[in-house]
Amino acid sequence: MVSLNRLSVEDPQDVSPLLPEAAEPKVTTPVEHEREAMPRKDFFISRTENAVLSVLLLAGCYSAILIPAYFPLRKFAITDDQYSKREEVLNLSAWLLSGRCQRRWCVERLKQLPCSSALTDIPVFLRREGSTACWDAPPPLGLHGSQEHLTRALAFLPQVGLPETLRRDGGCRRCVVVGSGGVLHGSRLGLHIDQYDVIIRMNNAPVLGYERDAGSRTTIRLIYPEGASGSADEYNKTSIVALVVFKTLDLDWLTSVISKQPLGFWSKLWFWKEVVDDIPLRAENFRILHPEIIRKTGEVLQKYSQKQGRSIVPTLGAGAVVMALQLCDHVSLAGFGYNMQHPHAPLHYYETVRMAAMKAQVSPPRTFGYCMQLVPPPRTFFFCYNLVGSGEKYSQ
Question: Within the chain, where are the H helices?
Fold first, then answer.
């Protein structure tokens, strides 16, 4: 059958069409036309996908900056110029050790500097009596609000104050304060450092594996809980571990370490990083640094600071130098300072982090520049000669 409207051929025995029927023309309305012109919904990504993509892009940008600094492609090598400086430092160090030790050499020269006479005759470690002058300020500049915690910590210390080995016996003594700066890397000062009478280190700066550059002995290691080394072997050749109290909870941590009674779960949450539960030393090897060291150091630095009216909390390195002045007649510094001219040089002598990492930080880290503020900068970058014997000869 042939129709005027449709052309089809039908089989009488089969109702299905042999040819497809012609589609009727579709009339598009203005509303449907606007919908077709609009972009499809699947063109946009969801909020979740957008957040994931943003995080990946941000991580990629940070990786491009930080990976070359923390994982450099090429290993730092000592150049000829640095080799000559190393030899100069080794010769100077040998000369200092071979020279005659003079009683109160550093203290007498320190008194010649303005505002620095207050850094002498300060008690080094807390005792059970005579510490009432510390209650006018909270830690670390005092012990206000920590009386009960201090009493409990001192009760677990069988010995307080200076041990017999550190008390002045009329002889002349030399101290060296060993910092963690990358300038110590490759210095080969280890044998020289071990010859000093008193060797002071800070926090978790390692000795094992770095004896050639940093020495092998430790007389006093200044620490706070978050900075204590978790390696038991690092305390093998350590005479004293002295706690620097930055908060009241630090005293509870010391009590826990000595008494072998772990801190509670809620107490540990107040530390900004995980702290060690055990230090393999006897109770008589622990001390508490007198807060007068930190307070008076900060007061002197305040007078040299451009920001007046706010208390300055000195770094552990600055406090270690002032402590060394109370114990020794000659004070030397090793491992302080940064070699900013070489981005691939190590930031610390024991890490793979490079100097370039400092540029990636929002604000520069706290560095030991305080001794540089007291006198003109030293000639080399391994020692600070305002406190080292015969500084006039080697200072510019």
Answer: 30-37, 47-70, 80-98, 105-110, 147-155, 190-193, 211-214, 248-259, 265-268, 291-304, 316-327, 356-359, 370-374, 391-394
Higher-pLDDT residue of 37 and 378 is 37
pLDDT higher than 70, residue 63:
no
Kindly calculate the radius of gyration of the chain based on its CA atoms and give it in whole angstroms.
34
Q: Look at residue 322 and give its three-state secondary structure.
A: helix
Distance CA 173, CA 193 (A): 14
Residues 6+ apart with CB under 8 A from 194: 215, 216, 217
CATH code reported for the domain at 101-394: 3.90.1480.20
> Which of 393, 395, 364 shows the shortest CA–CA distance to 379?
395
| pTM across the whole model | 0.73
- pLDDT, position 352: 78
Residue 387 has pLDDT above 70, yes or no: no
Percent of the chain past pLDDT 70, that is, above it, reads 70
Nearest to 204 by CA among 173, 187, 227: 227
Rounded distance between C-alpha atoms, residue 377 and residue 337, angstroms? 11
DSSP string of 115-134, one letter each residue: T-GGGSS---B--SSS-GGG
Triad 263, 268, 269: Cα angle to 5°: 155
Report the alpha-carbon distance of residue 41 to residue 35 in Å, rounded.
11
**Would you state the pLDDT for residue 307?**
63
Tokens 């204590």 -> residue:
228
